[in-house]
Specification:
Elements lengths: L3 E4 L17 H10 L4 E4 L7 H10 L7 E2 L5 H4 L4 E5 L2 H9 L3 E2 L6 E4 L7 H13 L2 E4 L5 E4 L2 E4 L1 H12 L4 E2 L5 H11 L6 E5 L2 H10 L3 E5 L7 H4 L11 E3 L2 H9 L4
Parallel strand pairs: 1-2, 1-11, 2-3, 4-5, 4-6, 6-7, 7-10, 11-12, 12-13
Antiparallel strand pairs: 8-9
Length: 259
């Protein structure tokens, strides 16, 4: 049985379409609180300031005690403040509020977040800027971005495209970077080997966590709709310890003492 949990948000605690709590999600957090089981809600939120997104979750009924997103560690990764930033309007607004100067003519760095409406022209602009700057950063390394019931390239997929196009590597702020996971671990002061991560993102979350010694649970309430979609692509040592339909099944395992 795990001593602590890292819990993803999008597709795990809230659905990708209406942003409403998924079956069993609120009850799972409540149970952890009642039993004083350590946990951190870990999200790749990059649209809203940390305190605003946590309040949004609390307003949905989640009594979240420990929370972290990429904005918590952005400044330690992004040392250049004059950047060309790509993402949703809310992300660009938040970046400016955090003290970053958006400059697409003479930037010192490139930062990429998620946006449903990216075009080939956007990707061309990212490549042109990446060729000019030394600092290239992905706000996280998600494989797939799920929005309104459809699946789009995640930031990780976009960053790998940029890397292949320019032969330049990039840094990652959020999941599954070591810095992000270590920051989350430090909140509860528990070793990775005693932590289970619960997420709907096999490639972007769970595999990276497993490499650090964490156990894992894949939920099929978000990006991945069935085991068959992903298992044939995984080595045996990459497969999750548990696969659950949603957080109600995870809660059942917790109550039975199986996770």
């Amino acid at each position: 049985m795990s001593r602590a949990y890292f819990i993803d948000v999008q597709g795990t605690l809230i659905d990708d379409v209406n942003k409403e709590p998924i079956n069993g999600a609120i009850e799972f957090i409540d149970t952890l609180n009642e039993k004083n089981i350590p946990y951190v809600v870990i999200t790749n939120n990059t649209k809203f300031k940390s305190e605003d997104f946590k309040k949004f979750l609390n307003d949905k009924g989640f009594n979240i005690k420990n929370y972290i997103d990429p904005f918590y560690i952005l400044n330690s990764v992004a040392t250049e403040k004059r950047v060309a930033a790509f993402g949703a309007d809310e992300f660009l607004k938040t970046m400016k509020e955090l003290g970053f100067e958006l400059d697409f003519e003479n930037p010192k760095g490139l930062i990429v977040s998620i946006k449903k409406e990216y075009t080939n022209e956007d990707y061309a602009s990212m490549i042109e800027i990446a060729l000019k700057v030394d600092s290239i950063i992905g706000m996280h390394d998600t494989s797939i971005y799920s929005k309104d019931g459809r699946r789009y390239p995640g930031v990780g997929a976009i960053m790998n495209m940029i890397k292949f196009a320019t032969n330049k590597d990039y840094k990652v702020v959020g999941k599954p970077s070591l810095g992000f996971f270590e920051s989350a671990k430090n909140i509860i002061n528990i070793d990775f080997k005693d932590i289970m991560i619960i997420s709907d993102d096999m490639i972007g979350d769970l595999i990276g966590a497993q490499k650090l010694g964490m156990s894992s649970c894949l939920v099929l309430s978000g990006k991945i709709k069935s085991k068959e979609e992903i298992f044939s692509t995984l080595d045996d040592n990459e497969k999750p310890n548990f696969v659950c339909k949603d957080m109600s099944e995870v809660l059942n395992l917790l109550n039975k003492g199986e996770i």
